[in-house]
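Researcher: Please predict.
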Amino acid sequence: MIQKEKTKLTIKSLGNAFSFAVVINFYIWLFFAIMQEGEVTVQFNFFGEALIEYIIYIVIFPIIAYAFWWDLKNYKIKHRESKSINTDKL
């Protein structure tokens, strides 16, 4: 049981890290767009890396989705608990 929880937490942490990496990638594009007077041309396969990036993004998407689902589930649980604590005080 403990190993299962560790695995879930590891996947959640990886999902959050991958989400951060995707956001950083977006901000790099945004930074270059700002430096080029609001326009940027992306040649996605300039070095022949498109297939590798497609595979990476397809592989990390389920991990990011799982981490998002985990955070949302825990938020709902904590929100319900805080509501029940607040109503008990009344």
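Model: The chain has a mean pLDDT of 82.
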